[in-house]
Structures are given as structure tokens and as C-alpha cells.
Amino acid sequence: MTIKILQHFILLTLFLGSSSFAQEAKNLTYYIGAGPAIDGNIGLYGIHVSNELSYSLGKRTTLNPSLTYYQSIKSFDNFDDPNFGQDNSSGLFTSATLKYDVLKTKKDFRISLAFGPSFQIGSENSTDGAYLRQDELGTYYEYLYSIERFARLGYTQQVVFDWKSKNENRRNSALVSMSSFGGYWPWYLMATYRMGFKLK
Predict the structure, then answer these.
(1) Does the record carry Signal as a key word (predicted)?
(2) CATH number reported for the structural domain that contains residue 122 in this entry
(3) Where in the sequence is the domain holding 90, given as residue range(s)?
(4) Cis ω for the linkage preceding 186 (within 30 of 0)
């Protein structure tokens, strides 16, 4: 399924790129941002930092390769026992989305939708449970942990809000992204505030 998605994405990108060669001006904007994140699989709050290069293919269409780092900071659950619920996840994501402006005002405020493949290298460790153990040290709980490492292909979907700054070479942007892997949607949910810098 993911291979078919990637093939369709590449073909669509090549078609749009070839159809836009007649344009004289190409806009290139670099975005950097950060914000909160959620790992929906094992229930973790986190933070992330993202970089994106936005290349204009047409009046409403852009190609956007990006690199994002995510790190969890806290579990959804609050346990009295500090040894239980110490779950953790982190990941480095590289994505390439095709973005289309569904709304564009005269003042250049834009609402866009984006979709594309995403590749993650990362890991997670989680507490699988505990059992009561008795020995010469007394009675205590022994915890079971699992560690999983990822190198996997999935996809990301985004809703993007973008508007002009007072500086003509700057843009402001906010987006919500949903990244899915292994049939789980969304595995990661991220909200980002970004600053954009026009490169040419």
C-alpha cells in the first residue's frame, strides 16, 4: 500500500513540475518551527522541531521536503509508582509533501492541504506490565519493558495556515500534521508554529 502511495506521489510531482516550467519566477522559502506533539500509539506528549524547504510549482501548488525531530516528554497516564509508566519515544522524520492552496485571499493569507510520504527512523520503549515477586529481599513488583526500533515508510497529512509578515522576505505559518505508519492513523499528531524566509 505504501509503495503505491509513493509511486502515485512521484508521478504527480513530476507532472506538476513539468507543467510549471513555463513560469518565469520560482519561489523558494525556508521554514523553521517547533511545537507540541502527541504519540497516539502509546499515549505520550512530546515536542518537535521542524525544517522545511518550500518550492513553488504553480500559483497554488508547492513541493515541500522537510526534516523533523520529535521527542516525548510525558505520558498521558499519571501513576503513583514512579517505576511504572516511564514510556519514551523519539524519531527523525523526513517527508516530501505536495501542498495545494484551497484558499488564497488578496492579502495573501492562505489555507492549504498537503499530503505525501514520510520516512521515520526512531524508537520507543514502553512498560508492558508488572507482576508481584517474592524472594529473600521481600515482596515487590517487577516490571516488563519492551523496546522497538523503527525504520519505516508511512505518510503525512497537513492543514497549513500561512500569512505575510511585515517584512516582505518573511512569512508566518502554522500547521497541524498527522503522520501515520503501519495502518495506524494518526500515529503522531503535531502542531507547529513556523517562521518562513524567502530565499529567492
Answers:
(1) yes
(2) 2.40.160.20
(3) 27-198
(4) yes
